Amino acid sequence: LAKTTQPISMDSYEGQEVNITCSHNNIATNDYITWYQQFPSQGPRFIIQGYKTKVTNEVASLFIPADRKSSTLSLPRVSLSDTAVYYCLVGDGWKAAGNKLTFGGGTRVLVKP
Amino acid sequence: ETGVTQTPRHLVMGMTNKKSLKCEQHLGHNAMYWYKQSAKKPLELMFVYSLEERVENNSVPSRFSPECPNSSHLFLHLHTLQPEDSALYLCASSQVPTDSGANVLTFGAGSRLTVL
After folding, report:
1. What is the pLDDT at residue A66?
2. Which residue, B89, B73, B102, is CA-closest to B34?
3. Do B100 and A30 touch (CB under 8 A)?
4. What is the pLDDT of residue A97?
C-alpha cells in the first residue's frame, strides 16, 4: 500500500514560490494524489488533486512525473497567510497512505516577511 | 449553512462526565469520519461511516462511541474520558466513489476537547 514521505518543514519568504515534494514509491494504478492544507486549530482543507502530469487551480499547481512515484505541490508567490501544514495523501476511494485515509506528519511551511 | 459544521467548538469535561460532539454536513455526501488530532501528532482516523453503517473502527477505546443516525449527522459520545484524550476532534465528510476513483474529504473546524 502506498506510503508517503515529505519533508518535515520548510521556510520561505513572502513572494517566493514554494515547492513541496512528496515521495510515494509504491503508488498503485488506481491511486490519486491529494494535497491538504491545515492551519492551527482548524480542519485540513483540500488544495488540489491529480492523477498524472500537471494540474493547476487558482491556489496551486501539482506536478506528477510519468512514473508517478513522487509529486510536487507548487505554491506561487506565497504570503504570510500560507503558513500552514501541508499534507500529501495517496490513495483510491477508501484507501490512502497505507491505511484508510490516514494522514502522515505533513510539511510545516513557515512564510517569513 | 454549507459545508461541515461541528458543535461545540470547545468543551471542557471531567473524567466522570458524559458529553457528545455533533457534526452535520450539508454537502449531500455519503460518508462521514471522525479524526483525532493531539498536540504535535498526525491526524488519527477513529471511525468511518458509509451510508450510515460503520465501516471502520480504528481500535478506538470504548469510552468513545460514535452514532450516525442519518447521512447528514454524526455524533461522538464521550464518557469516562482520560486527560490524554484531550485533543482536537475533527469531523469530515466525502462522496466516496462507488468503484475506484478520487476521494476528497471536507473537514469541519473541529471541537477542542479538554479533559480535566
Report:
1. 96
2. B89
3. yes
4. 42
B6 falls in which pLDDT band (50, 70, 90)?
Answer: very high
CA–CA separation, B51 and A10 (whole Å): 40
| Closest residue by Cα to residue A42 from B94, B57, B106, B28 | B106
Q: Which of B35, B97, B104 lies closest to A46 in CB terms?
A: B104
- Percentage of residues in chain A having pLDDT higher than 70: 89
**CA of A75 vs chain B CAs: smallest distance (Å):** 20
Decide which of B39 and A84 is more confident.
Answer: A84
Picking from A36, A42, A94, the nearest residue to B103 by CB comes out as: A94
User: Is residue B40 a contact partner of residue B22, using CB atoms and an 8 Å limit?
Assistant: no
Contacts 24+ apart (CB under 8 A), B38-44: B38/B86, B38/B87, B38/B88, B39/B87, B42/A102, B42/A103, B42/A104, B42/A105, B42/A106, B43/A44, B43/A102, B43/A103, B43/B90, B44/A102
Do A20 and B79 form a contact (C-beta atoms < 8 A)? no
Confidence of residue A103 (pLDDT cuts 50, 70, 90): confident
Q: For residue B41, which phi and psi values (nearest 5 degrees)?
A: -125, 155
Residue B41: Cβ-neighbour burial (10 angstroms; 0-12, 13-18, 19+) = exposed
B33: closest chain A residue by CA: A101
Query: What is the structure's pLDDT at B53?
Result: 72
More confident: B12 or A93 = B12
